[in-house]
UniProtKB/TrEMBL annotation:
PANTHER family noted in UniProt: THYMIDYLATE KINASE, UMP-CMP KINASE 2, MITOCHONDRIAL
Coiled-coil intervals: none
Gene that this sequence comes from: CMPK2
Family: Belongs to the thymidylate kinase family.
EC number: 2.7.4.14
Main location (coarse class): mitochondrion
Residue stretches making up the Thymidylate kinase-like domain: 260-417
UniProt-recorded Gene Ontology molecular function terms: ATP binding; dTMP kinase activity; nucleoside diphosphate kinase activity; UMP kinase activity
UniProt name for this protein: UMP-CMP kinase 2, mitochondrial
Enzyme type, top EC level: transferase
Taxonomy of the source species: Eukaryota, Metazoa, Chordata, Craniata, Vertebrata
SUPFAM superfamilies given in the database record: P-loop containing nucleoside triphosphate hydrolases
Reaction(s) this enzyme catalyzes, per UniProt: CMP + ATP = CDP + ADP; dCMP + ATP = dCDP + ADP
Keywords: ATP-binding, Coiled coil, Kinase, Mitochondrion, Nucleotide-binding, Pyrimidine biosynthesis, Transferase, Transit peptide
Length: 455
């Protein structure tokens, strides 16, 4: 059953209302205070908390709520943001620095003492900046010293890394001081501002830049990222060389091309193998075998680089599909749908409603990527999936571990997948009979069209 008709009802509608939120540290260089600053902090459990800064010691009516992400006394909090890449060529370095700091902050005594939450700082005129909110429940002078040393040790942040320190005022209000770190033991306070809780914006702050950091719209966009990595990651050059050898605009042959999608352990390998045997088809998978030896390397890289790697894997598979579909039917285990769904579900934290609107460009099939004829999305209950995973005991990617732990993530993955499928091709499901496709508005159903695979 085609399910294009469900599109208008997918997800909550979000307006075009974007936050006017200049970067905090640039505020210090501006005359006066910008209208509104905004940060999002991801709490454990994926809830987001938003706060803004005010230069005034007066509290605007109704905004005296202390943002939940800050510890009550005697706890202390700090934050740091990785400056947004000013040029395309610096985005890889910024992404890797974020990754490096994330690892460093979780290690040693600092990691044992503090809790580190993801922070996003937004501005309409640049990409959101990623950073960290560091909570020290039993304030220890060593924490601030360790943070200063860590940030001063990052050449990318020099000449003066900036650290925000949060402290309660006399009346329980919260203040943020912005410090420029000049060298060991030397720092300068750039400004002090009042921290105010703000309501959730209509649009999740990461949505507007998904296309440039996680879901690439073309071969050129994904190649661009790996080209910037070649001096840092030798495997990037090897992947680009393989892409170069592929025909530029591969066309599908006359045989059908069927993609099987689904979370891990939903039965893709079992189904693809069985369909391959019964149709006497050629079985391909994304990422293709020719890049699989570099998977571990790219899985350890930040989103920007990891997603570009998987995106290029799809273009390599597309050329294999084009070649094989002139000879036999082709079955493909995962394709662009997986690449996009994992990327969006990871980048958009919080609730299902935070996902981009259904007609957002991020769900659109890349114009230059060969399209399949049919996509089957396999789904099983979370309990069944976990049982199957335990039964296998195979090594899993970090993302797969997160998926298992986080049911919200899984729901997001499935919802995104269904949106993409509804927008691109006919969608069938192996086990969704009677299931509402839409957890939010729940209007349409998709039917059971492939039989269960015998155990
Ligand atoms: N229809 C089914 N009924 C019962 N068990 C199944 C069914 N399909 C697959 N399984 C079992 O579930 C486990 C996972 O299946 P499979 O390897 O095919 O999943 P997958 O989606 O390819 O996983 P991954 O993406 O992680 O490789 C296997 O042990 C398989 O035997
Ligand atoms: N087209 C693809 C395929 C895979 N991924 C990423 O790989 C992980 C799942 O791979 P399996 O080997 O378990 O099937 C998952 O973490 C995806 O991020 C991808 O992005 N695009």
């Amino acid at each position: 059953m085609l399910c294009r008709s469900i599109l208008p009802s997918l997800l909550l509608a979000y307006g075009s209302n974007r936050m006017a939120v200049p970067l905090v540290r640039r505020a210090s260089a501006q005359a006066g205070w910008p209208g509104q600053l905004c940060f999002a902090v991801e709490l454990t459990g994926s809830d987001l908390v938003y706060f803004t800064l005010s230069g005034s010691s007066q509290c605007p009516a109704g905004s005296d709520r202390r943002p939940q992400c800050f510890l009550p006394a005697p706890g202390r909090c700090y934050s740091v943001c990785i400056p947004a890449a000013t040029q395309k060529s610096s985005r890889v370095r910024a992404a890797r620095l974020h990754r490096h700091l994330e690892q460093k902050l979780s290690q040693g005594p600092l990691g044992a003492r503090c809790k580190v939450l993801g922070l996003l700082s937004c501005s309409p005129d640049r990409a959101p900046e990623k950073g960290f909110l560091i909570q020290d429940p039993q304030p220890c002078p060593e924490t601030e010293r360790s943070l200063e040393e860590l940030f001063l040790d990052q050449p990318e942040l020099l000449p003066a890394p900036e650290l925000c320190v949060y402290e309660a005022g006399e009346h329980g209000e919260l203040w943020q001081s912005l410090w420029a770190l000049r060298g060991t033991g030397s720092k300068e306070m750039l400004r002090r501002a009042r921290v105010l809780a703000v309501a959730e914006p209509q649009l999740h702050p990461a949505v507007s830049h998904l296309r440039s950091v996680a879901v690439f719209a073309s071969l050129e966009a994904a190649c661009g990222v790996l080209e910037e990595c070649t001096s840092l990651i030798p495997e990037a050059k090897a992947v680009l060389d393989l892409v170069d050898k592929c025909p530029k605009h591969p066309k599908k042959g006359e045989f059908p091309v069927i993609v099987i999608e689904g979370l891990d352990a939903t039965g893709k390998t079992t189904v693809t193998q069985s369909v391959k045997d019964s149709l006497n088809a050629c079985l391909l998978r994304s990422p293709p075998a020719c890049v699989s030896e570099w998977r571990k390397t790219f899985d350890d890289e930040p989103t920007l680089i990891r997603r570009a790697f998987y995106a290029l894997g799809n273009y390599i598979v597309a050329s294999e599909i084009a070649r094989e579909s002139t000879k036999t039917p082709v079955i493909v285990d995962r394709y662009w749908h997986s690449t996009a769904a994992y990327a969006i579900a990871t980048e958009i934290s919080g609730k299902l409603q935070n996902l981009p609107q259904v007609h957002h460009e991020v769900y659109q099939w890349p114009e230059d990527l060969l399209r399949p004829d049919l996509v089957l999305l396999l789904t099983v209950s979370p309990e069944e999936r976990i049982q199957r995973l335990q039964g296998r005991g195979l090594e899993r990617t970090r993302e797969e571990v997160a998926l298992e732990a986080n049911s919200l993530f899984r729901q997001k993955y499935v919802l995104i997948m269904k949106i993409i499928l509804c927008l691109s091709v006919s969608v069938l499901s192996s086990c969704c009979q009677g299931e509402n496709i839409l957890p939010v508005t729940g209007e349409a159903e998709i039917c059971l069209l492939i039989p269960e695979v015998a155990g």
